[in-house]
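Entry: ATP synthase subunit c
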Amino acid sequence: MEISGNLNAIGYGLSAIGGGIGVGLVFAAFINGVARQPEAQRVLQPLAFMGLAFTEALAILGLVFAFVWN
């Protein structure tokens, strides 16, 4: 019995789940920080968006690797 195929779709699915969890954690920490110290919003907001960008970049990188590695 021979199994053929690849796991690209599963790999991208796992990276998308990881990205979703990461974005949730980043914005949960942002909301928690702003709720505790509202005056720190101007400092925390750019950091939250930078965390969002890095987390989504990793998910996009997973998509690229899913197509590159056959």
